[in-house]
Design goal:
heterodimer; A: alpha/beta; D-Maltodextrin-Binding Protein, domain 2; five-stranded mixed beta sheet; three-stranded parallel beta sheet; B: alpha+beta; MetI-like fold; four-stranded antiparallel beta sheet; 12 helices; binds glutathione
Chain lengths: ~350, ~400
Amino acid sequence: MKTKILAIAAGAAISMVAAQAASAATLDDIKKKGHVQCGVSQGLAGFSNPDDKGNWTGMDVDVCRALGAAIFGDATKAKYTALSAKERFTALQSGEVDLLSRNTTWTATRDTALGLNFAGVNYYDGQGFMVRKSLGVTSALQLAGAAICTNTGTTTELNVADGFRADKRRYEVVAFEKADEVVQAYDKGRCDVYTTDASGLYSQRLKLANADDHIVLPEIISKEPLGPVVRQGDDQWFNLVKWTMYLMLNAEELGVTSKNVDEMKSSGNPAVKRILGVEGNFGENLGVGNDWGYNIIKQVGNYGEVFDANVGPDTPLGIARGVNALWSKGGIQYAPPIR
Amino acid sequence: MSVETQDVESDGAKVPLWNDPKVRALVSQAVLIGLVLWFGYEIVNNTFVNLEKRKIASGFGFLNTTASFGIIQTLVPYTEASSYGRVFFVGLLNTLLIGGIGIVVATMLGFLVGIMRLSKNWVVQKVATVYVETLRNIPLLLQIFFWYFGVLSALPNARNSLVLFGETVFLNSRGLYLPKPIFEDGSGAIWIALLVGIVAAFFVRRWATKRQEATGEQFPKFWATVGLVLGLPFLAYLLSGLPVSVEYSTKGTFNLSGGLQVIPEFVALLLALSFYTASFIAEIVRAGILAVSHGQTEAAHALGIKNSHTLRLVVIPQALRVIIPPLTSQYLNLTKNSSLAVAIAYPDLVSVFAGTVLNQTGQAVEILLMTMGVYLAISLITSMFMNWYNAKMALAER
Ligand SMILES: N[C@@H](CCC(=O)N[C@@H](CS)C(=O)NCC(=O)O)C(=O)O
């Protein structure tokens, strides 16, 4: 009896200590366990989507793959946890995932009160509306009184409420937890309107029974800077995620691609030398090998390649670069220099 | 310590203190309580330390913050400008609504099916058996989806609503639209009359029962009750100058507007929960009735009591004693299962408060504590009521 109690007490004490130590250096934990644990969506083509063999692809997935390449020199060293919009922050806060790369909008509340840090923006987006063509609606301003389907726990839900509250229009919002249920409910006629990030509309539209019967309205009602998120209080890990994204942007700027990266290694351009680890110790400063940049570009590609391969004009989503073009090409994607 | 031990021994007791069962029991219980308290303290402390370390906001201040999101079904006034605290009440009331109505429907259906299963009519009995065997073996979530995505969404769309009762009731895939009574000034008299009617009916029934017990004379209790509870308010309505008007739904650009809208999420959840739970209640009712010895029925028949009265006055009251305890856990299950609402966007407590608000504020600990507290309270209150009712039925023995 006594020994049993003692054992329980000791066990409890140990688990307390363990629980308190869990928020230590994420990067060390990742190296120990041998992979990056990445929180992604439950399936959003072009951003994070599993195929029938369970392999994930998409722009958000490529952030995780790039981290695998940076840390282990192997882009496949990333594992994925599918999270609904509602679950995602709790999963990150509790340490279930190392980062969230799941079309998540950077907002003040999330960046502060939720104890999170946004490591940058991998896709500048805005919220749009989709309706049935047969309704004859041509503008979001004609939507007063409509039933609107959307996801709970999203900025989308809040933006709609703001918009209709501002000009006192009546509306009915039907908010589901899972994206597939939203699509199904909209498709079956529960709602007149489906609203989410414009990128999400393009992607979810592919799931509708008859995609051609629907149109996306021209209005964009919000700013949705989407990017990867980490927990607050671990600057080393935050830096690595942030600079991994910057590296991919810098590579695009310098014309370094997954195809020419080997030749580029012998380039005379010092900036190229720095991002590929030929010169300097930028990797070391981030806690990874100096060839991190080479590995990322070789295995995943630069930002432009990732964009084109997943959501670009040649994919089913067919999204133009638009604001996501480099700053030097009329867009707003701008990365601080690696030097 | 050694002195004390000496004392005990010199008192002639054969056991030393540490072998005294009473002392040992006391000490070990004190140690156990101490450990539990320490464990609890450590958990709470650990939580706060970690929240602090991860810079996650804590405290209940968020309840005053503006919610800024819309909810489709609110029983109390609510707008996007209301607070998270208000969301809590909206969610709570929606949970109580589905739980309350679900329990009533499931009980009625469950009793019906339970009695049908004992019917001598082969068809009736088989129908009931098939009902029970199918519904209780299909996962509830699937049944919810079946009603929501399968049945209700197959209704015509808003522009081609089914029109019933001459443009007063509409049915479409957005819900059921009923005329909505608007209580204007002066309608207070109706409510007072209703209250008076209920109280009066209660006393009349008591009087009638007493009289029947004493003299055997019967009194039309049922009609008296109907007259008092419905008649009195109606009289008040006429006398106070018809202060109630009716608002009908009208067609808008997209949907019908005005009137009383019953959203399909509510209907689907209600149907799924009550049909599912009724299949369990039916079995409980069947078992309860079978537990009443057949001699009771035979005795009643021998006294010339007709079949329906035998069931209602002899068998069911006795069966209830067996039925009530397991019935209570079905009621608790139904209420807790209503949290599956989240799958079809019915705004219950778990969906809007432990879901949307949690996600929006990130204050998981506070919100989950409140939500768990609510379910605990609902469960305890239900159990208390059922225990009271059970005790009352048990005492009916004479
Ligand atoms: N960017 C918004 C919305 C993100 C969101 O969850 N969008 C939905 C609709 S596109 C989604 O990703 N669904 C996919 C899923 O739940 O797996 C936010 O961060 O709140």
